[in-house]
Write a structure and sequence with these properties.
Blueprint (H helix, E strand, L loop, with lengths): L8 H17 L2 H4 L4 E2 H12 L2 H5 L1 E3 L6 E3 H16 L3 E4 L2 E3 L8 H11 L9 E7 L10 E8 L3 H9 L9 E8 L2 H14 L12 E4 L1 H12 L2
Antiparallel strand pairs: 1-5, 2-3, 4-5, 6-7, 6-8, 7-9
Helix pairs in contact: 1-3, 1-5, 3-5, 8-9
Length: 226
């Protein structure tokens, strides 16, 4: 691993995320699902790449008189990222383990297959949903609406899609429709709206259309006749 040591908090963040955590994830004992103490494994990676002098370098916290050594900042950031992004299963008391097949719910596996376009997933029963944000709603004309699919809970799926997005408002779920073949149904709706020139192509994200709930419902009713 080639990198230049810098006595900054930005360096500590990059080291924790792109060096320490990635190496820990690839350790055989970790991959086997054995419990481990996160801070101990992080320290082994720190020792591998940083000298004692570099580890003990003190860095001042922005807008504060507090100073922390590099090794402590790296451990703190790695722990924070692990818990926030659920990189490992938290066993408590500083112990973690890698996620195993038993930790993954059937719904998550099916959702992943659906997103990946797995052939068998085309037969999944699920939900077509439509949502937008309050600022975009127009009572009299078509407005931007996101149309997606899920086999799980619509609210959970919408919040997952909106997490981390550049918005200061909560989404509004405008409608949901239970269908037998959720993948092909979503595709048919998208293609119909694209053919009508309703697709918002040059916007962040995908599956956004200038449409209305009535139009979406009309397309679904037509598809149900097949």
């Amino acid at each position: 691993m080639n990198f230049k040591f810098e006595p900054t908090r930005s360096f500590c963040y990059r080291f924790a995320r792109y060096v320490a955590l990635q190496e820990i994830q690839q350790k055989p004992d970790v991959m086997n699902g054995d419990p481990f103490r996160l801070t101990e494994l992080i320290q082994t990676v720190i020792d591998k790449y940083l000298t004692i002098e570099q580890q003990q370098t003190k860095i001042k916290k922005a807008q504060s008189d507090r100073v922390d050594p590099v090794h402590s900042i790296i451990k703190f950031v790695a722990s924070l990222l692990t818990k926030d992004q659920k990189i490992f299963v938290n066993l408590g008391n500083g112990l973690f383990r890698a996620e195993t097949a038993e930790d993954v719910r059937d719904e998550e596996l099916e959702e992943s297959a659906l997103e990946d376009g797995d052939e068998t997933s085309s037969e999944f029963e699920g939900w077509i949903y439509a949502f937008t944000f309050p600022i975009l709603v127009n009572a009299s004309n078509p407005f931007p609406i996101k149309i997606g699919k899920t086999i799980g809970v619509v609210e959970d799926r919408v919040m997952t899609q909106c997490k981390g997005s550049a918005t200061f408002d909560n989404p509004i779920i405008l409608g949901r429709w239970k269908v037998k073949r959720v993948g092909p149904t979503e595709l048919a709706i998208h293609n119909t709206l694209k053919a009508r020139g309703k697709w918002r192509e040059n916007v962040p994200g995908t599956e956004w259309f200038d449409t209305t709930i009535n139009e979406i419902g009309s397309i679904l009713r037509f598809l149900a006749q097949d």
